[in-house]
Amino acid sequence: MRKLFSLLLMTVIILAACNSSELNITEIQSISTKVQEKINTDYTLQLIEDSEKGDSYIVFHSLETVKAQLELKENILIIKLDSIPQENNELKPHVYKITRGDTEYDTINVLINGQATPLDSVSAF
Questions:
Q1: Of 73, 79, 125, nearest to 98 (Cα)?
Q2: Does residue 25 have a pLDDT over 60?
Q3: Long-range contacts made by residues 48-56, C-beta under 8 angstroms, separation at least 24?
Q4: Which of 78, 107, 113, 119 could hold 71 in an S-S bridge, CB 3.0 to 4.6 Å?
Q5: pLDDT exceeds cutoff 60 at 121
Q6: 77 pairs with which residues across the strands?
Q7: 10-14 mean pLDDT
Q8: pLDDT at 102
Q9: What local confidence, expressed as pLDDT, does residue 14 receive?
Q10: Whole-number pLDDT of residue 12
Q11: What is the rounded CA–CA span in Å between residue 83 and residue 120?
């Protein structure tokens, strides 16, 4: 009985850790149809909100490899996108999913290579 309880407790702990409610950004390769329908190749930088789940997507079209980081200062979410030069002539959309978790913010600033950059489009589905 004790072993069964220990196994059950470990399973609950692992599942709780996997379902973290922290602020997070990850580049996604498999883009949902709803997000694909909102992506406009004429825009360099887009923000797409998923009103059902509360997640956001940042779409950044670039010729270079892109590294993304998040920083939270008070009520401001700062999205840092840094381009890493490479020999490539193909404009590629880099799509990042931002999981809000329990984090509260009311302003989003995007920095591309340290420069504040306005969003070309904000949309939701």
A1: 79
A2: yes
A3: 48/122, 48/123, 48/124, 48/125, 49/122, 49/123, 49/124, 49/125, 50/124, 50/125, 51/124, 51/125, 54/100, 55/97, 55/98, 55/99, 55/100, 56/97, 56/98, 56/100
A4: 78
A5: yes
A6: 72, 108
A7: 57
A8: 83
A9: 55
A10: 54
A11: 18
Take residue 45 and report the two structure tokens written for it. Answer: 């930088």
The encoded tokens of residue 43 equal 């825009």
CA pair distance 4, 85, nearest whole angstrom:
53
Instruction: List, in sequence order, every beta strand (DSSP E) within the chain.
Output: 24-27, 45-49, 56-62, 65-73, 76-84, 92-99, 107-112, 115-116, 121-124
The neighbour count for residue 122, using CB atoms within 10 Å, is: 11
Length of the chain: 125
Both tokens assigned to 115: 């420069």
Whether residue 56 contacts residue 100, with contact meaning beta carbons closer than 8 Å, is answered with: yes
Q: Which H or E run contains 16?
A: helix 2-18
Q: What angle do CA 58, 61, 66 make, to 5 degrees?
A: 75
Instruction: Report phi then psi at 5, rounded to 5.
Output: -65, -45
